[in-house]
Amino acid sequence: MVNTSNEEDMRRLSGILVHPTSFPSPYGIGDLGKGAYDFIDFLHESSQHLWQVLPLGPTGFWNSPYQSPSAFAGQPLLISLDDLADMELLEKSDIEKIPQWKDPRKADYIEVREYKETLFLQAYAAFKHTPNKMLLEEYDDFCMANADWLEDYSLFMALKDTHEGECWADWEEELISPIPEVRASLKKSLKDEIRYHQFLQFIFFSQWAKLKAYANEKEVFIIGDIPIFAAYDSADVWANKGLFQLDSTGHPTRVSGVPPDYFSATGQRWGNPLYDWPVHKKDGYQWWISRIAHQLKMVDYLRIDHFRGFEAYWSIPAEEETALNGKWVKGPCEDLFLCIQKELGDRLPILAEDLGIITPDVEWLRDMFHFPGMRILQFAFQDMGESTYLPHNFTTVNCICYTGTHDNDTSAGWYQGLSEELKDKIRRYGNTDGGNISLDMIRFCMGTIARFAIFPIQDILQLDSSHRMNTPGVAEGNWEFRYLQEDLDSSRSEWLRQTSHLFGRY
């Protein structure tokens, strides 16, 4: 984790938002192998110092990284098969039998899971009989160092496997809230299954640590991302029911979401169980401190999605089908972050996703801890009014300027959907003909006073709406975007390098 009090950390930096699943790879999905290292090399050669990812946990329903079965675990699908072969846990011939994927520009999660999980089981079988004592010692050390979350997670996943992925709320009654005797029995009967999931986490975190070290050597800093809420069908909720607003049967009484906004006229009902903040306060927010500390070992900066939920959150009765009938409820506010500061240091490298309905109280909370907020250029140019997102209206350097986020359309797709009148205003504002609007947007972003400038990889590749990462409110077809290695050619690198230097971002 970086020290945000260092003067060097106030440099004007820029970089790219892309999730590892989007990297080039012959294995149906991006991973932590060659495609990831090639991307870091591209950033370095292009004078880019920031790489922003989406949450790195296992994906759950509809493959969303924002609905994970764990707030701590890593995504096994990101494990590099080539690295497993280099570790002699797979034979080279094992990974040469690659399926014919439908579309190399999209991740096919169903087929990838079937393909990779078969190889993971082979690797685990080899691991159990490996003569490599150092590897076994590293595994034991990892399990001991991460026992506070890994034991619950591995048991939870082993139980999900035996129940064919069924939600924990539908398991046998004794497994919904197992007493110590039942847990001890399960650990014996499911010993191998539990160890398998611990093995996958050991491999993921080993590969991630190696990749992060390489990035930092190249002066590339990683911006992580976590959702504010935990998924209901997660090890976190299953093992810590008292921390959430659940009834006596373990079902949520109220759930998360947001009121109507830019993305949806009926709001968004996310469905996550809400935290019981008074209970968290009693032990000094230890679950949250552990979560933040764990993430900051993995990344240099941490973006918290839906930051405004710490000041006040939209509470929806669980039986409601939409978010319309929710209400604002006060959150933990500064009390939470003061406790985190006490444990982790005064200058936390946290970035605040402060989009949506932002009140002066939210801004005060953000600014009290010097957390940079977000400025989205697509929102600024949407109506060309007196938006605080317009570059000439920025009043602080302590913010991140984005062309768009993973929830936005690509800049090219967004521009094509605008009225001719608005297109004309944007062209005049930026002194451009609009022929390369994606690059224009990056140039606008780079030229602002914002400390950080970040753009999705789709914008440097000048891609249209068919390549967006996520469409809020649409369940299927999201999180699948991938690019090919030849897309990031030397001409794009040179343009980025020159543009970054022009605006003092290097």
TrEMBL record:
Gene name per UniProt: malQ_1
UniProtKB keywords: Carbohydrate metabolism, Glycosyltransferase, Transferase
Reaction it catalyzes: Transfers a segment of a (1->4)-alpha-D-glucan to a new position in an acceptor, which may be glucose or a (1->4)-alpha-D-glucan
Gene3D superfamilies registered for this protein in UniProt: Glycosidases
BP GO terms, sorted: carbohydrate metabolic process
Family, per entry: Belongs to the disproportionating enzyme family.
Record SUPFAM superfamilies: (Trans)glycosidases (SSF51445)
Entry protein name: 4-alpha-glucanotransferase
UniProt-listed Enzyme Commission number(s): 2.4.1.25
A molecular function (GO) term: 4-alpha-glucanotransferase activity
Pfam families according to UniProt: Glyco_hydro_77
